[in-house]
């Protein structure tokens, strides 16, 4: 029987597959795969939302191995997206290498936590969405639609937990 925790793990694993597919899209199709990459990222973001929701509601006190490494999978997705952007010619090799080195230094200095992970992923997602809005606007419009859906479903959690936890984590980072 497929339990909610097992389904959450499947969704997390799906994000890992997306992370591996993005560079393949970049290598094989380059810029022609931009709209497909937007849809892949939507799959990643939708699966991230639902795996977290399932895990919070139905997991035991001890997360599975995959659940305990959810943040690493999120970072893997961002790295896959960076590789797509590099292989498609949207960012330079120098930028990509510089960004990876900055990630490594930040993770070494501040450790791996949700706030650091969000700060590391954010610029890559921002660059990607900026490019998609210009070069694949029909696909890019699905992103704000998804954000509206998520916020309409979970605005209380977002305002009462997600934002306060992020800013508390940011405060801890700045005090280090």
Question: Care to describe what's here?
Answer:
The chain has 176 residues and is mainly α. The protein has one domain. Helix content is 86%, strand content 0%. It contains 8 helices and no strands. It has helices at 4-29, 34-58, 65-68, 70-87, 93-110, 114-135, 137-140, 142-175. Helix 1 (4-29) packs antiparallel against helix 2 (34-58). The longest helix has 34 residues, at 142-175. The radius of gyration is 17 Å and the shape is globular. The N and C termini lie far apart (46 Å).
Contiguous uncertain segments of 5+ residues: none
Structural domains: how many: 1
Report Rg. 17 Å
Largest sheet: none
Helical residue percent? over 70%
How many beta-strand elements? 0
Instruction: Return the string of H and E elements.
Output: HHHHHHHH
N- to C-terminal distance? 46 Å
- As a percent range, the share of strand residues is under 5%
Q: Per the principal axes of the C-alpha atoms, what is the gross shape? A: globular
User: Which structural category fits the helices and strands?
Assistant: mainly alpha
Write a brief caption for the model.
By secondary structure, the chain is mainly alpha-helical.
What features would you highlight for this structure?
176 residues, 8 helices
Tell me the layout of helices and strands.
Layout: H1 4-29, H2 34-58, H3 65-68, H4 70-87, H5 93-110, H6 114-135, H7 137-140, H8 142-175
